[in-house]
Amino acid sequence: MAHPPIERPRVPLTQLGRGQRARLDQGCMSGLPEHDQCLLRAMGVHEHCELRVCKPGEPCIIEVERTRVGLSGPVASRLLVTPCDGAGAD
Hints:
The chain is an alpha+beta fold.
């Protein structure tokens, strides 16, 4: 009998360590003001994208589609992500 996939909980981006990968899911940016959401989308950070943490902290630097983006601590803490399987430090 097949088991349903294990659903991993969403966590704030700030809880991930260097090298960890995660996915931004539907509604992950809902806690951000609309202008911040638009700016993130313009930089390639959007729902359903996969990212990697290059540097946790302030600023939080992530890589999305081979582009690095720096996020302020308050913005990173309000982005909810689902860690990817096999995520770990490089």
